[in-house]
Amino acid sequence: ANYSFELLADVDGQISIHVPGAVSEDLALNPNEASNTLTFTGDFILPTANITSTAPTYTNVAPIPVNFEWSEDTTGFVSGDVSISGGTLSSLSKIGVDYNGTITPAAEGNITLQVPADVCTDIATNPNLASESLMFVYDVTRPSTTASTEEAAKTNKQSIGCKVTFSEPVPDFTVAAVQLGGVGGSVSEFAQGLEGDHVYTFNVSASQEGDVTVFVNAGNTYSPRITDRADNDILASNTLNFLYDTTFPAVTLTLLSELSALDSLSTKNKPIQVQMDTSEPIDGFIGSDLFLG
Question: What is the pLDDT of residues 71-93, one digit of tens each?
């Protein structure tokens, strides 16, 4: 005789079924023998994918390697199942239960990818859950570097406020990267973030009177290199030039024409030509500054 029935598993894990002996008997009252045992696995867990990469979030590497790490073996997963913006997924291959592939960026900027829900199944035909998104910022542009100050080119201030502004954040920039030329000096009050995370401020103090230059070299001239978050070397900056001068300008008055003995007694209604020489150019001098006594 044949009997058929359906079993509906309601738990995950291994399930077994058998008929024990002596639970029924034939028409001659002979008890049944124990049956063989059937085993199968109940699976109600939906497969999930974790997207990883050996590349950092900010990268200048292309193509970008990616790995889809599945919680269990799946079928039906193809590159077209992946939702991606800013690039193209290709070279998808299966290794074990995981898949490897590469992303070719469409241009500089953000790249985001995700595995949507219900694009593949496990061996128990459970559809997959949606994955978390993975994002990259593809950047191959070297940051520009601008040195600036609000101080005049000639100054008697020993401490001169300066700043270096990058076109994007440069986390590895340090005070040691600030180069001083001319008579040289020292750098102090070095800080980041007071005007944004791409701006560094500091003071330069001249070691003595004379010309002082302030500049930043290209990133690949330093050890370790100075780069942006995507490992692009910074570009060299412009050069700031100062003249640190604390010497008072000397003033010398010279009579341009000889006076006769009579003229020396009286110069009424007679102009006297006088020349004023200064040891260096001066600003703001006007006629009323002369003292006549």
Answer: 999 999 999 999 999 999 999 99
Antiparallel, parallel or unpaired: β 58-59 and 134-138: parallel
Neighbour tally for 94: CB within 10 Å: 13
User: pLDDT by residue (tens digit) across 139-185?
Assistant: 999 999 999 999 999 999 989 999 999 999 999 999 999 999 999 99
Report the amino acid identity of residue 212: V
Tell me: the pLDDT tens digits for 18-68?
889 899 898 899 998 999 988 877 778 899 999 999 999 999 999 999 999
- Res. 14 pLDDT band, cuts 50 70 90: confident
C-alpha distances in angstroms, 39 versus 6, 7, 18, 222? 14, 12, 9, 67
